[in-house]
């Protein structure tokens, strides 16, 4: 099954001339035109790495980097691990290591750019359910064990709650969990983007094309997140982590964002 080399998403059946996700104005088709590969080819030329992140999480990434280059996270807790976001590679060594860590009981994906090989990962762990917000239903590339959900929040396993902020995509979602010490973590993908200066986050409709997110969506994000306790914000890439005062960082960053648009924050 074809995998787009620009976004890394695997499709069941697609027009070989175009990747629907990359032709949307939040992404792009590479300068050399549309190119395709497969999960098997990606996995043969890359290694799927599984290594610890801070605050009790485990990161899963592809080395050398492929497509957008994000890394997924394994979020532990009662009822089993949640695989947060996905990558385009999967190999026997990674499956064995994740199995040692308790396997995957559920998968949740922040937005379409990170669907990657989510069905392959689900199949490797007994058809683990994949949670995608219903507002992104049109982008789902493979049905597999996908379950769509509606509304603002959904607890998919004890202590692992999805929150639909609508940043980046209408179904743009983050995951909150209390963490091993109760101080709280936010797994944000690039919905709440941890930027180069890790004292801040930001909010974009399109990252590669530099289209800012709508102010009302940023305000919505603050309303949904400001009363949650989380010390840490885990972004989409290795090392992109806000390590302290995560909830305060989100509020201050949203305030700065709105002020730079000439608007007065109302929170």
Automatic annotation (TrEMBL):
Ranges for domain Metallo-beta-lactamase: 69-237
Cited InterPro entries: Metallo-B-lactamas (IPR001279), RibonucZ/Hydroxyglut_hydro (IPR036866)
Cited Pfam families: Lactamase_B
PANTHER family: METALLO-BETA-LACTAMASE FAMILY PROTEIN (AFU_ORTHOLOGUE AFUA_5G12770)
Full protein name: MBL fold metallo-hydrolase
